[in-house]
């Protein structure tokens, strides 16, 4: 696959139905890689669609939230297998913000994770290369599992658990986490670099904003966290993706920046997420369909120029809302 999200647990139908996107200003989301698919409708009829067959259904089904029918087959547009050179290193956040456009242009995939209450972030660049994997055997064996999975995840989990004892410790713990970040460099198969194993439970909200609004919105989040005296123990993720033309894609019609915020699952998330969502609303943000948000059909329909196009297809394919549920009623309407 030419691009992938960083969570490796999804089904392909779930990934495309929620517009899972990955990273890289020149790369569109996974839904844009779909060349054709089949839907089983509520009537039992099978509808095959592609850009050349039932094209209106195809465009709606590329990001459908499961509202049209059961996706039974997917045909993906793939590329020749490739390796990625991945570099992760800590940098001061102000430097990364100042160089964000430069770094996004210079590398196929660039993102950073900023640690609230600190001046530090982890920068990640992934660049396509013809070089052979530098550590494939080590990464796929027991040593890699202990180092990359158990140690990193468990150490981070211990810090989160310590924060539950006393929330006021979080700024110091964040500083400790920032100090433990080191430079890592490796070359490996693309799917191994793109996806990660997550062992620490958390809640997440992610918003897509116009690319030109990305860094101003991020700066507002930084100021809000300090102004509201919130204790945030998880990093804020910032990245960019290319525009697409899918009716319900958050990147529809505009080059896009994504900002993701996270909260350890034992902490309340709503106060923080609502503050972030208010900032995103002011910047024309569209929520990631597969993550938490507080929007509804009334607030969402104005964000998508082809909202009515999708609803018309839904009305035709599932007029009795056999595939409806509480979430779909909230975000799409009855």
Description of the structure:
- The protein is an alpha+beta fold.
- It folds into two domains: 107 residues, Uridine Diphospho-n-acetylenolpyruvylglucosamine Reductase, domain 3, CATH 3.30.465.10; 205 residues, FAD-linked oxidases, C-terminal domain (Vanillyl-alcohol Oxidase, Chain A, domain 3).
- It has 13 helices and eleven strands.
- Strands 7-4-6-5-9-10-8-11 form an eight-stranded antiparallel sheet.
- Strand 1 and strand 2 form a beta hairpin.
- Helix 2 crosses helix 12 and helix 9 runs antiparallel to helix 10.
- The two termini are 36 Å apart.
- 37% of the residues are buried.
**How far from one another are the termini?**
36 Å
The sequence of SSEs as H and E is HEEHEEHHEEHHHEHEHEEHEHHH
Helical content (DSSP H or I, runs of 4+): 25-40%
Strand order of the largest sheet: 7-4-6-5-9-10-8-11
- Rounded mean pLDDT is 92
CATH architectural label of the largest domain: 3-Layer(aba) Sandwich
C-alpha Rg (nearest Å): 20 Å
How is the biggest beta sheet arranged?
8 strands, antiparallel
Summarize the structure.
The protein has helices at residues 12-17, 55-62, 93-98, 100-106, 136-140, 142-165, 170-180, 190-194, 214-227, 270-282, 297-300, 307-317, 326-332; strands at residues 34-40, 46-49, 70-76, 83-92, 109-114, 120-129, 184-189, 202-210, 236-241, 256-264, 286-287. With 334 residues, it is α+β, with helices and mostly antiparallel strands.
